[in-house]
């Protein structure tokens, strides 16, 4: 986790007050996707998606008011950062498709000569974020039995 967080922070595009401190690794089989979602309030409103092995199309759709989704092609070894309105006011998803085809919002930035339809293979995604809000374990009200069990588990690591 630390080498990835450090590399993203040092490349000069990470704009959160602190460096990223979480990397979530997901593997998707050919044709795999992830449903429409928001990343939520535990994180600083900036996320990075590092795509590895094959491409996929991520769609951003407005949370309110409808409207057409924006489609961005994630090429292998690419890093997509999204923040502000894109993070807070748009759901994002990757449809479970076996191939990707235009149009793409980032079409002008893509290599020339891409095929009109690109089959998807296995994809690994590293999602990089900054966890901001955590609950202090000691602030949570729990039963005495649960507190005793927590102390027992912690003692195993000391």
From TrEMBL:
SUPFAM superfamilies from the xrefs?
A: Clavaminate synthase-like (SSF51197)
Alphabetical UniProt keywords: Dioxygenase, Iron, Metal-binding, Nucleus, Oxidoreductase
Q: Which GO terms describe its cellular component?
A: nucleus
Superkingdom, taxonomy of origin: Eukaryota
- Fe2OG dioxygenase domain ranges (all copies): 19-132
Q: Name one GO molecular function term.
A: metal ion binding
Cellular location(s)? Nucleus
Primary localization class, coarse: nucleus
What residue intervals traverse the membrane? none
The entry assigns this protein to a family as follows:
Belongs to the alkB family.
Q: What is this protein called?
A: Fe2OG dioxygenase domain-containing protein
Please report the organism this UniProt entry assigns to the protein. Hemiselmis andersenii
């Amino acid at each position: 986790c630390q080498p990835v967080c450090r590399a993203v922070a040092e490349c000069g595009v990470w704009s959160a007050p602190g460096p990223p401190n979480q990397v979530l690794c997901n593997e998707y089989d050919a044709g795999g996707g992830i449903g429409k979602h928001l990343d939520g309030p535990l994180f600083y409103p900036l996320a990075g998606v590092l795509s590895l092995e094959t491409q996929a199309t991520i769609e951003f759709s407005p949370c309110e008011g409808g409207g057409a989704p924006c489609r961005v092609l994630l090429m292998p070894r690419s890093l997509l950062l999204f923040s502000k309105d894109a993070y807070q006011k748009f759901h994002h998803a990757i449809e479970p498709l076996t191939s990707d085809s235009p149009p793409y919002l980032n079409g002008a930035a893509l290599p020339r000569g891409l095929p009109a339809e690109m089959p998807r293979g296995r994809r690994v995604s590293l999602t990089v974020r900054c966890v901001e809000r955590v609950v202090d374990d000691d602030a949570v009200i729990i039963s005495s039995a649960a507190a005793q069990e927590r102390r027992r588990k912690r003692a195993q690591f000391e």
